[in-house]
Amino acid sequence: MAILDYLTNFAMNTPLKLYNKIGFGLPLASFFMFLAEILYPPISKIPIGESPQTRFNKYVNDYNQKKKTDIEQKIAIVTGANSGIGYETTKALMLTGHIVVMACRNETLAKEAIADLEKETGIKTCEFIHLDLSSISSCRKFAAEFKKKHNKLHLLINNAGIMACPYMTTKDGIEMQFGTNHVGHFVITTELLDTIKASAPARIINVSSMAHASGDFNKEKILDKSKYQKVGNYGISKLANIMFTNSLAKKLEGTGVTANSLHPGTVYTKLQRHIPGSSSSIQQSVTRALFLSPTAGSLTTLLLALSDKVEGVTGKYFMRELEATTLSQATNQEKCDELWEFTEELIGKSEMNSDTHSISIK
Question: Of which family is this protein a member (predicted)?
């Protein structure tokens, strides 16, 4: 369905490009983007062209053909790997010979997922390390434990997330969506950067969302409970994912490490659990029929993780396996630097009584 992919991306990119150029009309641009997004999944299920499973297999097979000349054992981390897109991503990485560290909060669910993956693939290269992205200390502990076990990291896929939850804070007092989706991944990424750089060529992939276009990096909206909006703050966290990616790409120039972000599509996963009515059997049946499957949702991640087509590409945003347009704020270097500094401040305040130092890339 390559033509459909191109047409849908065109329909979503064009309104955002116009908004970026003229500076107003974001609600109208968002409407057309949303319309194109919700029409894509049911149309894409028409059995014309390659199926998502065929495309999934192609990424795996193409990589396996390439790796015949590369005998180094590759190591990957996937956050939120026990279900949905993360599960499918992990499966593909196992099938391509990677050692995959499943970074999840729930050990029972993670080990059940590993057992299922081993049964599906016949491969036993997946391991579990506990990670709670809503806890900075857990993120640091995860990174330390990983480095005890491995001295290389070729692929970091920051996939986990929380969406549209009622107002709550992380263990460190940070608004939950921003703290989990951005700050937690910021901590593990920066803690592991030396290992990643020592493994170059290596790739960092941040799973964002088209919802970033509804976001606005505004500190008050993150810090002030009275300004909290479930969907709006989700958009802020997803915008932060892209801004963080672009900062990484700039800071890592010349190191052999690339950083890219993506929108996976509207996928049927547990991410929607905080949306009213999502737990009803009728609603689940409707969303399963109308949304993309996790296999389809994993394809853009697999492009960025496994394909030669993006070798050396960095600081870009993708959707439907194609480069796409972001909100102009996401590429504003001054704003990106401000986000980085703000994130360090939040981390520093939460660890004021520890010996933690400011995070930097050398």
Answer: Belongs to the short-chain dehydrogenases/reductases (SDR) family.
Q: What is the DSSP letter of 182?
A: I
Active site residues: 234
Domain region containing 106: 3-360
C-alpha distance across the termini of the chain, in Å: 43
Domains in the chain: how many in total? 1
DSSP state letter for 25: -
The DSSP secondary structure of 310-357, one letter per residue, reads: GTT--S-EEETTEE----GGGG-HHHHHHHHHHHHHHHHHHTTTS---
DSSP 43-72: HHTSS-S--HHHHHHHHHHHHHHHGGG--S
Distance CA 234, CA 163 (A): 6
Q: Look up the pTM and report it.
A: 0.93
CA 246 to chain centre: 14
CATH number reported for the structural domain that contains residue 293 in this entry: 3.40.50.720
Interatomic CA distance for residues 313 and 349, integer angstroms: 35
Extract the tokens encoding 151: 């001295």
Residue 68 — pLDDT band, cuts 50, 70, 90? Answer: confident
Hey, what are 143's tokens?
Answer: 């990174």
Averaged pLDDT, 261-267: 96
- The full 3-state SS of 233-299, as one line of letters, equals HHHHHHHHHHHHHHHHHHHCCCCCEEEEEEECCCECCHHHHHCCCCCCHHHHHHHHHHCECHHHHCH
Of 21, 33, 55, the residue nearest 209 (C-alpha): 33
| Chain centre to alpha carbon of residue 65 | 26
Q: Which residue has the tokens 């990589």?
A: 63
What are 180-228's pLDDT values in tens digits? Answer: 999 999 999 999 999 999 999 999 999 999 999 998 999 999 999 999 9
Instruction: Yes or no: say if 109 and 318 are a contact pair by the CB < 8 Å rule.
Output: no
